[in-house]
Here is the input.
Amino acid sequence: MINTAEVIDTGTSILFVTLDSLRYDVARAALHAGQTPHLAKLLPGGAWEERRTPGTFTLPAHIAFFSGFLPKLPQPVQPPRLWECRPPAFKTVDEGTFVFDAPNLLAGLAQHGYRTVCIGGVTYFSRETPLGSVLPGMFQEAHWRTEFCSPEPDSTRHQVDQALAVAEKYADRPLFLFVNVSATHVPHGHYTGDSVDSWHSQTAALAYADEHLGRLIDGLISKRRWLIIMCADHGDAFGEDGYYGRGIAHPTVLNVPFAAMLMEPAATLTEHDPSSRQ
Here is the structure.
């Protein structure tokens, strides 16, 4: 298991990527079909974990993540949490869990000398409305431009360019770098030349994003050690049982892919030591 308390104590930088709206079955099928070769080289055991999200749309899912509640395994017994807000005195926390004495993870990491930076994707990170200011307002620094959003066919490239620039800017200090990948959020029909969003167009969107995510992670781990966490915030229904969209308690929305791994600076996605990952 990853000892996140040790990660923070040693000032290891953290990359947290949410693939917005990505269904677990889409992520798994794309992996098995060879459509995400860069992620295939990164994922522990070459596979996604199937987990259950704590929120059925972007806002509550991310509020939960930043409060210490990452997606859970579909089983009664859970592994220790990676991070957790300081609990009441009667509760025991695993020694490997990072416990932050603050209202949220970002404030807690700042207390430990981390620079917290958000690379927004969907409009919940855009600051265009009061509600769209909640999540980016939790970070010390937040970036969002229209080309980061899902209607832009090359959104992930623009987001990764910004993320790598941030990593270079803060190369001399611990960094919590968060990227909300919007390409897998509707609309993504443009990746299949269709005006309708579907299971197939989300698969194509993930295949597009894969190359740039590989470029991001290779660029980061070439210089220092990183804890990397990747998951979806929720899934999306494309007509199953008559349901469409998100914000509903349907398996297509609740089941999400998840992965967490420690990557050493000598590794790349084409040459790495799988034993260094969870």
Remarks:
- The chain has a mean pLDDT of 95.
- Helices lie at 4-9, 24-32, 37-42, 58-67, 105-111, 155-169, 199-221, 251-254.
- The CA atoms of residues 31 and 94 lie 33 Å apart.
